[in-house]
């Protein structure tokens, strides 16, 4: 039960007479907040107007030019996002794309990877790490933990200068070698004579940063993750769940009293703390020299981080002196926007199955602004309502919650289970439109009378309930960037969007993409992609208009499966559904275009026309670059066969033949060797007994059956029970696809080659002064 029970028991003296929302009046701001009077006002509510975002912008351009939107999907989305972030951080001075990006938005699991990057940047800005000219700025934190001796010829992940990391095993990670998870540390590497490493020779511990995440990305386990090439390894999962259930049962009396008999909405769920501390342990911690490993998620350092790592701290990386920031962090990072879902009232009795409204229910959290269309946007620090950076990451990723509307099960049953067992992960914050006194009065109301004081249909209740950002319908993180008129949006879609179908090969619903397009249609626009994603990119293509392909009703927003048939003009046309295994567009490009006049009446339900009052400007010049965690299965199988055929019988896998990356002989695309190895192992593990003893006929069945689910593993599975190999496979895929952004089109290539971010003129002194005011309520 660890120390979570102590947290719950220790909370008893503070429950009585407290305001609801988990924030005591003595530590929260003076509420309600008032409307902002002018552009210099802080700690105030901006009138809702999505066509004009009043914030401290990271660019002086009329429209921000480049944004990175990273999707939800738990520990499935996190490594895919980590691979893309690595490619944005990679490269010599002047190439790193991350310092040329204006905004980064994250939802749910991708927030883990963003948390990793921004926390490391914060530590750099505060001088925790000495400057290293070989790996300046953030690059040291994204050095892969593999020891690839093939990197001499073709670098993949590890830099060619990493002499110390080349070992006898081509693809083995320091995380998996000789139980390396218990040997990771940050002790400085030295040459045999005791001197520091010479310039260009990697410090061995740099590989431990990514190695640490590999080891501990299984968030809910006390020990490190298993090493497994199979799809599923649940060796320790039963014990993990047994511990969590026991904790929850012990906490029930306190939960029933404070959150059901009364409506105090205290965060007393032990599994919520397990989840929160697991995220911190994996993505925001590196063991100090001499640390005994493994490190459990419930150490005091993680509880302290929840309280102490604030947005005022994080603002340092946006507001620091330019020379100092360039020398430590490497440059100005994109402004981070965490997307959660902001629900009204007591969501335990909210039984609606209707999708949330993206224009009002996407709750944004940045270092100097937070809120939603429903409640208004606050110009000020999220600390005003008790939100630190870790708590904001938690709220954005709280998918096990009663606000969940995307599950196929009845909401009443889901709510009863989550509330009855005290396993709800959402977080309540004070409603900044209501006074502290009103919350204190609400805390004295007993069941069922407190329902009369909190209507779930209005935004006037005592609290705002934050939960998984994907529950809003935007699991891609696009709405906050569209609201800011970001002109070029790279979408990192690492979500689980595959629907199995017994009558066919299943299909990708693309429901999140259709949900965002529903928002665009409401404003008179639509996304038109360059081609069907199954199109290999050769010959003429037919535009793929989401307004014509998506189907919308009162419960779902998803893509319909086009009835594509072969014809005499195009007999080779793919007639199968769109699946994760026939996806041929590594960078799927779309333009946002205006709908034809009058089209919205037939495309939306209960909607008379475009909502021009709150339409962001410049939408018709926005371009989307969509990176999907899907692949062309047949192409990968072909390259795997070509690769393995080069190995003489009994000699093993010819990794050296691949040299880090390889090019398909027929399609000219680049394939990573380590990912090819994972695909091979996954194919043969589809047959009981694995690779040993397979006949040639059985091997063909294993490779062609399509029984594996990577890269569309279950989101819940990858969060609850992951393996080092699976984490690496998703990260490799994200890194590989992000490489193709440079050649996607001339417009994006020009942006990726532009000068790094600069602090906008006229903002000197304003960033820091506003942030300090906002962080001291």
From TrEMBL:
Superkingdom of the organism of origin: Bacteria
UniProt-listed InterPro entries: Acyl_Trfase/lysoPLipase
Gene3D superfamilies from the UniProt entry: Cytosolic phospholipase A2 catalytic domain (3.40.1090.10)
Name this protein carries in UniProt: Lipoprotein
């Amino acid at each position: 039960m660890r120390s979570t029970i102590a947290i719950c028991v220790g909370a008893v003296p503070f429950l009585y007479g407290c305001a609801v929302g988990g924030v005591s009046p003595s530590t929260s701001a003076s509420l309600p907040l008032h409307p902002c009077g002018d552009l210099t006002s802080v700690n105030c509510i901006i009138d809702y107007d999505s066509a004009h975002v009043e914030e401290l912008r990271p660019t002086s351009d009329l429209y921000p030019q480049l944004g990175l939107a990273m999707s939800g999907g738990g520990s499935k989305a996190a490594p895919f996002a980590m691979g893309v972030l690595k490619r944005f951080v990679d490269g010599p001075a002047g190439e790193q794309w991350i310092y040329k990006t204006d905004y980064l938005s994250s939802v749910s699991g991708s927030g883990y990877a963003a948390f990793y990057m921004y926390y490391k940047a914060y530590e750099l800005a505060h001088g925790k790490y000495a400057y290293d000219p070989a790996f300046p700025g953030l690059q040291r934190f994204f050095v892969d933990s593999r020891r690839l001796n093939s990197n001499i010829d073709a670098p993949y992940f590890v830099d060619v200068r990493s002499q110390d990391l080349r070992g006898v095993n081509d693809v083995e990670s320091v995380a998996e070698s000789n139980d390396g998870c218990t040997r990771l540390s940050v002790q400085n590497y030295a040459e045999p004579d005791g001197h520091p490493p010479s310039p260009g020779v990697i410090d061995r511990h740099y590989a431990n940063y990514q190695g640490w995440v590999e080891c501990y990305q299984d968030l809910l386990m006390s020990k490190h993750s298993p090493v497994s090439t199979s799809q599923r390894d649940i060796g320790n999962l039963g014990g993990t769940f047994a511990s969590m259930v026991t904790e929850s049962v012990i906490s029930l009396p306190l939960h029933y009293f404070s959150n059901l008999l009364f409506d105090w909405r205290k965060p007393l769920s032990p599994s919520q703390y397990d989840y929160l501390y697991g995220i911190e342990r994996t993505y925001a911690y590196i063991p100090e020299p001499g640390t005994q490993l493994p490190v459990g998620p419930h150490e005091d350092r993680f509880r302290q981080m929840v309280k102490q790592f604030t947005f005022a701290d994080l603002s340092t990386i946006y507001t620091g002196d330019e020379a100092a920031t360039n020398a430590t962090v490497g440059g100005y990072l994109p402004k981070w926007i965490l997307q959660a879902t902001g629900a009204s009232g007591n969501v335990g009795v909210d039984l609606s199955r209707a999708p949330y409204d993206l224009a009002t229910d996407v709750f944004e959290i940045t270092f100097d602004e937070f809120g939603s269309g429903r409640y208004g946007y606050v110009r000020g620090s999220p600390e005003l309502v008790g939100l630190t950076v870790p708590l904001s990451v938690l709220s954005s990723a709280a998918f096990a919650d009663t606000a969940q509307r995307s599950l196929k099960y009845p909401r009443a049953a889901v709510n009863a289970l989550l509330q009855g067992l005290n396993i709800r992960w959402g977080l309540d914050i004070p409603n900044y439109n209501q006074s502290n006194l009103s919350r204190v009065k609400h805390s004295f109301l007993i069941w069922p009378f407190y329902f009369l004081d909190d209507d779930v249909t209005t935004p006037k209740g005592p609290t705002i309930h934050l939960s998984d950002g994907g529950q809003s319908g935007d699991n891609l993180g696009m709405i906050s960037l569209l609201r800011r008129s970001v002109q070029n949006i790279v979408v990192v879609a690492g979500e689980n969007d595959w629907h199995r179908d017994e009558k066919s090969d299943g299909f990708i619903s693309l429901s999140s993409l259709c949900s965002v397009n529903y928002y665009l249609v409401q404003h008179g626009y639509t996304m038109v992609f360059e081609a069907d994603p199954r199109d290999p990119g050769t010959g003429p293509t037919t535009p793929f208009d989401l307004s014509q392909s998506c189907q919308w009703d009162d419960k779902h927003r998803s893509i319909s499966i086009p009835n594509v048939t072969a014809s005499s003009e195009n007999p080779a046309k793919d007639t199968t559904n769109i699946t994760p295994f026939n996806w041929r567009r590594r960078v799927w490009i779309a333009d946002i275009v205006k709908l034809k006049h009058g089209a919205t009446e037939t495309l939306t339900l209960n909607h008379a026309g475009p909502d021009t009052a709150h339409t962001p400007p410049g939408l018709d010049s926005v371009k989307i670059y969509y990176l999907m965690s899907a692949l062309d299965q047949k192409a990968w199988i072909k390259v795997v066969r070509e690769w393995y055929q080069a190995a003489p019988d009994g000699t093993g896998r010819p990794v050296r033949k691949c040299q880090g990356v390889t090019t398909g002989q027929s399609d000219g695309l680049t394939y990573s060797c380590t990912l090819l190895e994972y695909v091979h192992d996954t194919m043969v593990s589809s047959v009981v007994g694995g690779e040993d003893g397979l006949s040639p006929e059985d091997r063909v069945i294993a490779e062609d059956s399509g029984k594996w689910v990577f890269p569309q593993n279950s989101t819940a599975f990858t969060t609850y029970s992951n393996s080092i190999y699976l984490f690496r496979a998703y990260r490799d895929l994200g890194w590989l696809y992000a490489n193709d952004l440079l050649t996607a089109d001339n417009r994006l290539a020009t942006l990726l080659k532009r000068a790094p971010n600069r602090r906008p003129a006229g903002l000197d002194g304003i960033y820091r002064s506003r942030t300090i005011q906002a962080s001291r309520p």
